[in-house]
Amino acid sequence: MILQFSVLIFLYIMGVLWAALFYPKISPNLIASSGLFWGGLINTILGILLGLMHLYSEIILFVLCLFTILLVIIHIRTRKRWVKVSWSSLLTPIAFMFTLFIIALLIIGNEFRLITTSASLPYIIYGSHVNHYGTIFFPGAGYDFRSNYGISEVMIHALSGFINLPAISLWHPFLWISQYAFLFAAILEFSKENAVNKNIAMIIGSLTLLWTATSPMNWMQSYYIHVHLFSSFSILISVFFLWRIANSTKEEAEYAIFSSFALCGFGFSRVESPIFIFILLLITFFNQKIFTKEYCSFFYPPIILQIGWLIYLFFAYQGTDTQYWTDSRLLITIGTYFLFLIFLMVNKSFELKINKQWINKHISLVIIAVPFMLFAFDPSKSHHNLQIVLNNMFGTLQKPGFGPWGFYWFEAVLLLFILLKWNPWKTDTQIQRNFGIIIIILISYFVLILVLGFFREDPYSRIRWGDSATRMLTHISPTFGLLIGICYLDLFSNLKKSGSKLKGENYHNLRYE
Amino acid sequence: MKDHWFKNNQKQSFQFLISVFIGSFFFCILISLFSRVTNLFFIQTTFHSEIIIVSFVFSLSLMIYVNKLLSRIAYGLDLHILRHQSILFLIIINLFFSTIGIRNIQRQEIPVNHELVITVMPTQGSYDSKIQIIKIIRHLNVPVAEDMDVGLENLNIEFGDYELFKNRLLLGENAIVRYRSSFSGNISIFFRTTSASRLVKVQFDQIERQFDLFSTRKKEVEIMLTAPVSLERLSLKWKIFYLGLCLCDYFSIFFILSVLEFIIFLCFFWKSKISESYCNVLSRFLFIGMTIPAIFAQIYQIWIFPNTLNSNLPPLKPIAISEEVNFRNIYQSADHTKNFASAFILSFMDIFPDLNKVYIDPITYQLFNFDSFQFKRWFSVYYPQTSENMPLKITDIEINLIIGSEAWQSINFVVPEPKERIYSIKYLNQKPNEYILIVHRNNNLFLIPDTIINTIEEYR
User: Which among A274, A283, A475, B446 has most CB atoms closer than 10 A?
Assistant: First the structure.
């Protein structure tokens, strides 16, 4: 257990060092809470690179150490940044996270605790294969990598071979702690920026955190071996920083880097990620005016990584047709990403005149129209899928709230309804103005769940926690919680009075075209 | 409204506040009674959306009237945020959640008089239509109650030929059997038929169904019957009892919600300023009022929930692997993935995590389905192929010699379906140079390393 702990703490420190490169723009709370995620992502990217070259072995440990040393050197060379730093404010959140990890370790004790299902086995098996064969090219793996099984979780469990274990069982509890610490930190961050009373922020933050984290399906992620937790953390970070970009009137390249890199993490995690990332980039492109540095750091990394990953899936497992990614679909998606990349570059160079507002309106309509299109193609399957998803979210008519999600979505939708009904469109704060973009991103993910169900050979099966659609909802539930938490904090804080109201026309000129 | 007398009379105002709460208390009783009466049927029987809609509309109309009354009081007490739509909204929310809550409460069914009538139908042609009743079982809807055999001697044969043996009742064509009893629950009848006899009519509490016993293609046929539950079937005493029970449930939920909201209101919003819009205040109130109970409920659920993977609800406690931590034990900890391929692969990985080649005896390959999808996904990394491609040929007799002369270590795994079987993987504590050979003897799969195969001469 101590060896597992050491591995994760090493990843955490590496992640913190990476995130700290963007200090003071990124606050210590956010750095400390997202450290493990970044550590995991760096390990995934470096592991994939070594795996592509058939070099994955103890070399990964060496490379990770080298990367960490490099980060330390960068920090030393840019030490001017650290002169005016309040070390207590910087180290307290890190110490707090360490304390939480140690408490979790003490609670878990010396036992190997987890939940596995048939859907967990590929991660454990391929983790071992990567470790022992030193590559990410395996005969047969195409069935999994082209299906719902992402490589990010595999790369974490691949490390377990170095400590003679079949899997890293502490990864999930620690990442779960990090995710909800991040959610809390995000709400505090918002309160600081908008001069909200700290006590109110603490209350709202705690309530949002507890409400989201203890909902049955989210709680289960703290020990269920699957890629869901990493995926949900990716979306949470990405959407949060995207929201901050949207809320800011200045150029926010650092936020853009965080948002896009987190999106890359999602890209390595799920079968639906190429579509979701594309939709998110599209929505962002047409919704906002993007500054030069944001443009490069937000759009290019996920597109390039997606193209790379899809090319790997195409060539490494050519002919392996799964229900989602066949060769032809992969080619179409790679082509679409290439075209989008070219379009972005052309747009950047020649500043094309596009009626973004018009397109922005219609993107939302198209996303909302997708379920209706699915109904037109196959009414019975679409109806069945929708019914199963809704039943899993809300329970059945006979037993409302007795689905795997309990009352979480019930309350989330009701609270959202209250927000929509009463507040966001009546007042004019930054948060509320950009409420729409976050909502449409989350709706697009929900629509994506229905689309995946449509492409499945067997439709979503039944009301049960193991159903794919039910588990996929965990990807957006923390973000949904964050959205509701921040919007209610906005209500509590009376932003209109506190001076963080939009700066009128300036704001429009800067962010909206 | 502005000259309301409460405005300038604090003492009386507080007295009135208490009266309001007492009034609310009885008001809740009235509401719950009303709701229970209208909701009773869809709680008990199958779902009727019309009744929900009607009851909701009725409740809503009543609420609007009460809202006006409470608003006047709130205005007098300077409770600015407890006015008009806010009260209405809160009451509707409470009604809504109380209705959900009451419908989710497991309620004990009340014993009613059941009547079971079995009629043997005539069969076309010259076949003998005799059927046998082996037993009739009562499944009681009572916690920890065991199923009960009603006993063939308690059946009342009203018409037709019959023969009663110790353990079965043989009934001729058109025979009618009747059984009356008072209980809550379902009933199962176990029939046995001859090859030709098939039709039987069963009537259970006015619901009549005809079963073709032959069509099931089983010699012994079980038919389970569920009695429809309805309020009319209850005696007056039970009706009052049942109504009271439901009323208490509903009232409790409603009142608990109301008290909780009141506490939250006192804690957070008592001093809210008049300038704040009621929408904002209500939104905050609802956020806190909805998340706090949800958090308690969720933590309670995590605390008490059983740890089963087969449930529809997620397992809320992790499973601790108490034995040695390896792939096989991780596999064993998962409850619903027990198939041969996964079990074998994960056990195999504990022994040989990094082999380059695996040869499999052709019969073993076919018998254990080594070209199945699961093996192709996870086992292809070992490049499995039949032993015909092995560089060194080895006969069955030689394999038997090796098996007989070596001291094998063993690990077992269980595959529960289609029939529970224990398999053993037998292996030697010896690392292969390049490959291993897999052969089976009964349910034992032997992993023979090439280091042994290469020295086959010694065995000969």
Answer: A475
Mean pLDDT in chain A?
84
DSSP B384: E
The one-letter amino acid code at A268 reads F
CB of B288 within 8 Å of a chain A CB? The answer is: yes
Give the tokens for residue A259: 């948002």
Residues B100 and B118 in one domain: no
Q: Could you tell me if A280 and A447 are in contact, meaning their C-beta atoms sit under 8 angstroms apart?
A: no
Higher pLDDT, A194 or B230: A194
Contact A150, A268 (CB under 8 A): yes
Judge whether residue B296 has pLDDT over 70.
Answer: yes
CA distance A499 to B22: 44
**Would B287 be classed as within a structural domain?**
no
Tell me the pTM.
Answer: 0.76
Considering the domain architecture, whether residues B209 and B241 belong to the same structural domain is answered as no
Strand B421-427 vs strand B444-449: parallel, antiparallel, or unpaired? Answer: parallel
Q: Verify that B119 and B63 share a domain, yes or no.
A: no
Q: Are residues B355 and B455 in the same domain?
A: yes
Chain B partners within 8 Å of A112 (Cβ): 320-321, 325
Q: Which of B195, B228, B261 is the last residue of a domain?
A: B228
- Which residue in the block uniquely carries the two structure tokens 């012994």? B220
CB A478 within 8 A of CB A232: yes
In the prediction, which pLDDT does B309 show? 54
Task: Establish if B263 belongs to a structural domain.
Answer: yes
Q: What is the pLDDT of residues B25-80, one digit of tens each?
A: 565 555 555 544 544 433 343 334 454 555 555 555 555 555 555 555 555 555 55
Q: How far apart are CA A205 and CA A60, in angstroms?
A: 38
Per-residue pLDDT, A67: 93
Is A496 in the B-facing interface, judged by CB distances under 8 Å? no
Can you give the pLDDT at residue A99? 92
Q: Are residues B349 and B427 in the same domain?
A: yes
Residues B11 and B70 in one domain: yes
Residue B50, min C-alpha distance to chain A (Å): 13
Which H/E stretch holds residue B180?
strand B176-183
B160 and B97 in a single domain? The answer is no
State whether residue A162 sits within 8 Å of chain B by CB: no
Distance, in Å, from the CA atom of A118 to the CA atom of B343, rounded to the nearest integer, reads: 11
Do B261 and B179 fall within a single domain? no
Q: What's the whole-number mean pLDDT along residues A306-331?
A: 87
Query: Do β-strands B176-183 and B112-120 pair in parallel, antiparallel, or remain unpaired?
Result: antiparallel
Name the amino acid, one letter, at B242: Y
Please name which of A155, A156, A35, A187 lies closest in space to residue A101, comparing C-alpha atoms: A35
Q: Which residues of A touch B314 (CB under 8 A)?
A: 216-217, 219-220, 404, 465
At how many degrees (to 10) do helices A28-52 and A2-19 cross? 110
Residue B198 domain boundaries: 112-228
How large is the C-alpha radius of gyration of chain A?
A: 22
**Interface ipTM:** 0.84
Does residue B300 lie in a domain region? Answer: no
Give the three-class secondary structure for A171: helix
Q: At what angle do helices A408-422 and A379-394 cross, to 10 degrees?
A: 100
| Among B residues 3-32, those touching chain A with beta carbons less than 8 Å apart | none
Q: Which of A318-322, B331-335, B336-340 has the highest mean pLDDT?
A: A318-322
Tell me the pLDDT band of A62, cut-offs 50, 70 and 90.
very high
Domain boundaries, chain A: 2-82+91-316+325-348+356-511
- A449: its two tokens: 């769940």
pLDDT per position as a tens digit, A452-492: 888 887 778 776 787 888 889 999 999 999 988 888 887 77
Is there a domain that residue B321 lies in? no
Question: What is the number of domains present in chain B?
Answer: 3
B334/A120 CB distance under 8 A:
yes
With beta carbons less than 8 A apart as the criterion, state whether A395 and B101 touch: no
Give CA angle at A110 (A104, A111), nearest 5°. 90
